[in-house]
Write a structure and sequence with these properties.
65% of the residues lie in helices and 0% in strands. It is an all-alpha fold. Helix 3 packs across helix 5, helix 5 crosses helix 6 and helix 6 crosses helix 7. The radius of gyration is 20 Å and the shape is globular. It starts with a helix and ends in a 16-residue tail after the last helix.
């Protein structure tokens, strides 16, 4: 009997917790998209490109000064990780930030992308312009 009472009392809490997680998740997504939008605008690119899949990667590569064909590298397993790290480092440098900020972009992008977009960082130009890498 005690087991049945314990079961009946524990059925209602999961929905509320899931709702809280969903709201936080959606808030993070909105913050990242808004930060990317502002970041693109700071770099002189259309902000709406932040919401278009794959095209936003193309614009990101343009902002950091990497060639368009790096987009193809982003679809190769393991290679894409290396490319993403290099692009994060270039992105930080393109906005006048150092390697520490790049590490933040790599590990906590959902925090550092909105900081880059809404913060006082100014676009310095493509960090990788003229460099040959890979």
């Amino acid at each position: 009997m005690l087991h049945v009472l314990a079961q009946s009392n524990s059925n209602g809490g999961g929905g509320f917790g899931a709702l809280i997680v969903l709201v936080v998740y959606l808030a993070i997504i909105v913050a990242v998209v808004a930060g990317m939008w502002k970041m693109f605008a700071k770099a002189g690119q259309p902000g709406w490109a932040a919401i278009v899949p794959i095209y936003n990667l193309f614009i990101l590569l343009k902002i950091v000064g990497r060639p368009w064909w790096w987009l193809l590298l982003m679809f190769i397993p393991l290679v894409s990780i290396v490319v993403a790290v290099v692009v994060c480092i270039d992105l930080a440098k393109s906005f006048g930030k150092g390697v520490g900020y790049a590490i933040g972009l790599i590990l906590l992008g959902f925090v550092f992308i909105p900081l880059l977009g809404f913060g006082d960082a100014q676009y310095q130009g493509p960090a990788a312009a003229g460099k040959q890498f890979l």
